[in-house]
Design goal:
With about 325 residues, the chain is mainly alpha-helical. The protein has a single domain, classed as Na+/H+ antiporter like fold, CATH 1.20.1530.20. The strands form two sheets. A two-stranded antiparallel ribbon has the order 1-2. Strands 3-4 form a two-stranded antiparallel ribbon. Helix 5 runs antiparallel to helix 12 and helix 12 packs antiparallel against helix 13. The longest helix has about 35 residues. The chain is globular.
């Protein structure tokens, strides 16, 4: 019997770490405001080098990069856009596993999402940001996709191939991935400290800002999940093992890419960057809630093997039953 896989302490309490980083960032912004500004100034084509380094492991008034002045609400909407169009490619593997879904099905969807982001994320993001009347630096957009989508795909493929050839598949799965996960999350949290050190004054003056941003993001997540799980999955007569990860991969987001892109496009201190960070804040608790909901409503689908009284066995076609009895 395989060893039970659970969320690590970093993943399970990610919301707490994010809250601590928010506090640390605000405190840093108060006592040493020039530190974050200096880090953010190290950039190429407006791409922040420190943020790029951190996010690769993982992956007020509003004057955005480039000098344009935009309404703050537009900036928040832009962050929500960048978050909403970034389909999940990492954590959904954990959500699918916890819901006891079809791992192979989840892996195929993750691969499709990665390819989709590679070719569609930049043009779709540019189109929607244009509708929102936000400035779009094309060099920055293309560079962000290259750094945070194409480069990790290529590096991940060759790294995995090299490690498996030299260390074996078991070492890759049990050792390498075990140590890589906390490094990725620590890098993300370090980025959040810098981000909130710049946004600290806005947050302290407007403490409900985080709440107002989180409400539409929460509603978006729930609506997409309900549509995928209770409507489309049943319409296409999916088994529970396929329905659960299908709904959750649609509802969850690749927040690392969204944070990276918003930061590079509009600046580390922008409202857009802040909005994407709120996605991190609510991602883990909301998705764990949806995992629980999937299990509680598994009886709606055929082919559920959760071994619960409410589960429905797979429907065997009459032809198959006839063959088994002959």
């Amino acid at each position: 019997m395989s060893k039970e896989k659970n969320l690590s302490i970093f993943e399970k309490y990610l919301t707490i770490w994010v809250l601590l980083c928010i506090g640390a960032g605000i405190f840093l912004g108060k006592i040493a405001p020039n530190v974050a500004l200096t880090l953010d100034s190290w950039s190429v084509y407006q791409v922040s080098i420190p943020i790029a380094i951190c996010l690769d492991f993982i992956p007020g008034t509003e004057i955005v990069k480039g000098g344009q002045e935009v309404e703050l609400w537009r900036s928040y909407i832009s962050g929500a856009i960048l978050l909403g169009i970034a389909p999940c490619t990492a954590m959904v593997l954990m959500w699918g596993y916890l819901a006891k879904g079809n791992d192979a099905h989840t892996l195929v969807m993750v691969a499709i999402n990665s390819l989709t982001m590679l070719f569609i994320y930049a043009p779709l993001g540019s189109f929607l940001l244009g509708i929102n009347a936000m400035p779009i630096p094309w060099k920055t957009m293309l560079l962000s996709v290259g750094i945070y989508v194409a480069l990790p795909l290529i590096a991940g493929y060759f790294t995995r191939k090299w490690i498996i050839n030299n260390k074996g598949r078991d070492w890759f799965n049990k050792k390498f991935l075990h140590y890589l996960t906390p490094v990725s999350i620590i890098a993300l949290l370090a980025t959040l400290v810098v981000l909130f050190s710049l946004k600290g004054e806005v947050i302290t003056k407007n403490p409900l800002t985080i709440l107002w941003i989180s409400i539409p993001l929460f509603i978006q997540t729930i609506v997409i999940f309900v549509l995928g799980y209770f409507v489309l999955a049943r319409m296409f007569k999916l088994s529970y093992e396929d329905a659960a990860p299908t709904a959750m991969i649609g509802a969850s987001n690749h927040f690392e890419v969204a944070i990276a892109t918003s930061t590079m496009l509009f600046g580390l201190s922008s409202g857009a960057a802040l909005a994407t960070v709120v996605g991190v804040l609510i991602e883990v608790p909301v998705m764990l809630m949806l995992v629980s909901l999937c299990k509680k409503k598994c009886y709606l689908f055929n082919g559920c093997n959760l071994d619960l009284p409410r589960c429905r066995p797979a429907v065997i076609p009459a032809e198959a039953v006839k063959r088994q009895t002959t």
